Amino acid sequence: MLKRSAGILPYKYIDQDVYIYLEHPGGPFWEGKDEWSICKGEYTKEKAIDAAVREFYEESGTKIDKDKLTYLTSYKINKRKIVTLYITNMDIDVSKMTSNTFTREYPKDSGIINEYPEMDEAKWFSLSDAKMKIFPSQKSLLRKFEEYIK
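User: That's the sequence. What structure does it adopt?
Assistant: Structure tokens below.
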């Protein structure tokens, strides 16, 4: 069964350069890894745009009005998932980022349950830096964005 995710890619211009907002996943698996993600999450019954707004708020602490969003693409990023992506030209103060949390037993089979933020950091990246930092499965979404801004 194909899973569906929806997300928001904020962007802004500094001088003539475009910057995009990405987040770093939390938890022990991602600790020390320099891979970043578009803020997105899975949904089932709600509309994609509503899921994108909800997920962005849950993972960043920032509310975005869906009237400020532009649909960019729905793109199959692998055999099991399609991502619907919206974009918005806005500035977000990354120092105020807050994320929901999840619990996980770590180390595995240790009986120790810890709580981790779903996303532990947010940053603005130039488009060229973002291409190097973003999850490989999301590079196609960046290409779609790059086509859009040209």
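The first strand starts at residue 3 and ends at 14.
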